[in-house]
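Support request, please re-run this one:
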Amino acid sequence: MPTKTLVPYSGGVDSTYILWKLLHETDDEVTAMYLGEEHYHSQIYADKSPIQYQRSLILAEELRKIRDFKYIKYNVKNTDISEQINNKALIIIQYAAPFINNGTYDRIAAGGSYEDKHQKVVEHLEYTPLYYAAHNLFNKLCNRGEYWEPLVHGDWHPRYNRSHALLELPTHIIEMTTGCSSPQIDVISDEFVECGKCYKCNMKRKYTELLSQGMTPDEITDWRETKAYEYGGGKFMLTPQEWIYFETGIGITKTKEQVMSDFAKTGHFNLKGLPDVGIWKGILNPKSV
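Re-run finished. Output below.
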């Protein structure tokens, strides 16, 4: 019997790559789930989500040419969000847990990537904040199944970055992906338009440039990590978002000194405002848990 896999699907490069690989290389019974974020997190999601969803439907139809799969949309509700469940990966786990437990799905194939989570700013991968929280939550809510992050664990590539997907995916599929943080619809052509300024657009453009220069994805990983350490003053590695802003000079909101000051205060990036209770307890100092 084939494995029943739920793919949280945004239409971005990473989730499209996961869906494409599963359809090509497995006999999994695949369900792609789009998380409707119109009422979640911030105005940027409210603006982005309907546009991205419509684009993802077109992309899903293209991927169905490989083989058929289910496509569903789940709209986030206010009751889905709490102090402990305040990230879309955690909302997805919370939603899927009953279906994992009753056998509707066997696993969640999540789209986190090595470059996003294995930042070398913590000693072990399991202590990277969202990784730690997501696996903790899955283990608490699910009595069977698997929370699988193939782009983190090296199932397909030991050190995945988005250049792997850009290299392997067909060109027309890449052109249809919707990773932009601030997409718009051209009112004349009715076409999806990327902003060209957010970190996702910058990273996609930079990786495409490096691939065109003949660099391999592994060489790109080495180059990016070296640069990320350099921009971190040789003391720590910047996150991909911070690195690409410093690399391109587009979208920078903090000076290097401010970034280093933030790191010195917390020991980690992007953790401001996280509670130290429930699923998040111990993230700032996981060895104490």
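The domain at 4-153 is CATH 3.40.50.620 (Rossmann fold). DSSP finds twelve helices and seven strands in the chain.
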